[in-house]
Amino acid sequence: MDRQERHLLQLLQKDASLSVAELAKNIGISKSACWRRIQKLEESGVIRGRVTLLDPAKIGLGLKVFITIRTNQHNTAWADNFRQVVQDIDGVLEVYRLGGQIDYLIKAVVADMPGYDKLYQKLIAADLFDVTASFVMEEIKTETALPIR
User: Fold this and answer.
1) Are the CB atoms for 72 and 126 separated by under 8 Å?
2) Which of 11, 18, 54, 65 gives 22 a disulfide partner, CB atoms 3.0 to 4.6 angstroms apart?
């Protein structure tokens, strides 16, 4: 990846609504060259998609929760069921399988505590051993742009 592609990615991460003309001008290349670079980055999977970021609180999802899960079942059938359960729960934003004392980490948003309880009731369908929730009181830093060197 060359300097111009890195610059292009930095610009797109900050504002994906920029036109190809604006991007090309900022980078110092033609519109057609810029468009070809964007297409190449999309085809190679570097650019996975373009989204609009919403403020969760302004759409009624004011409670962010991190859920840690430990399981005593380490088999394919359980893992497949767990994957399906979390895929089907609205509000679950991210799920990670971890190494260490915690097996899974879930990031979710809900409206309030009753909303969390509804999410929890759906989550326990995965036959969990230990579930712990931590509720966000203050966001200190939230960043979506990856550092590109």
Assistant:
1) no
2) 18
CA 66, CA 68: separation in Å to the nearest integer?
A: 7
CA dist 102 to 60, 68, 130, Å?
30, 6, 9
pTM score, whole prediction: 0.89
What are the sequence ranges of the domains in the chain?
A: 3-43, 56-135
Could you say which architecture CATH assigns to the domain 3-43? Answer: Orthogonal Bundle (1.10)
Enumerate residues 6+ apart whose C-beta is below 8 A from 71: 78, 82, 103, 104, 128, 129, 130
Query: Is residue 144 a contact partner of residue 94, using CB atoms and an 8 Å limit?
Result: no
What confidence tens digit (pLDDT) does each residue in 109-135 have?
A: 999 999 999 999 999 999 999 999 999
Helix axes 31-43, 20-27, angle to 10 degrees: 100
Q: What is the mean pLDDT of residues 73-92?
A: 95
Alpha-carbon distance of 92 to 94, in angstroms, equals 6
- Residue 20, Cα to own-chain centre: how many angstroms? 25
**Dihedral angle, C-alpha 8, 14, 16, 21, nearest 10 °:** -50
